[in-house]
Every structure is written in C-alpha cells, then in structure tokens.
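Quick note —
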Amino acid sequence: MTGDPAGEVVQAEKDRIRSLLDVDPEAYDRLHAPEYELCNPTGAVWTKAQYLDLLTTGQVAYRSLELLSDPVAVAGEGVVVLRYRCAIEVTVDGTDIPRHEAWHTDVYVSGGNGWRCVWSQATGIV
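Predicted structure written out below.
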C-alpha cells in the first residue's frame, strides 16, 4: 500500500476491468470481495459467484470496456468509492450488444487482502 487509497483503488479498478476482459478467475477472486454484487444496466443483481459463472461460461463476454473519464474517487476510513464513464461492448447470451456508454460506481473496502470491490453499479447513458 502506498498511503494513497484513492490511487491504489483506481489501479485496482483497472486491474479488475482487465480480469473481466481476460476472464481471469484468479485475479477476479482477488479483486472482488466475497459479498460482491453487481447491479447491471438492466437492473439485475449478480453475486460474485453468479457473475464469475457468466464470464467463465461465455454467457457474458466483454469485447471491450474502456474508461472514457478519469475515475473520481472519494476515500474514507477503509472505503473508497469510484465513479467513471466508460464504453462497453459485450456479448450476453450470444447477442452482441454494440458499443454503448455507461456510468460505473464501484465501492472498495480494504482488508487483509488489499482493496477489494464489494459493490458495482453500471447505469447506461441514453
């Protein structure tokens, strides 16, 4: 740890995105807290295990996930909240969803294993 929680979490988020693109279960596990939940743009909520299963079976396959803005971070004692704009191209259940923009909000908590994402929400931009 560098003493800069916001900076550490921004890097962790970039690593987390890479774990989704590469479908890297080891990195995914290290960067997501056991109680992790994603609220996706459709409003569905996936647990850590459900999301990983969707990724590893190819039911969800990111073709790209690109940050369009620098993450804004707010840090407190043991918690950092990030918000940023991104562009996503993804295949869901065999259907290609074209490039679209979304806001992401992610909550990270620190613990013995470093910073881990505990909640994510993606909101589509119309």
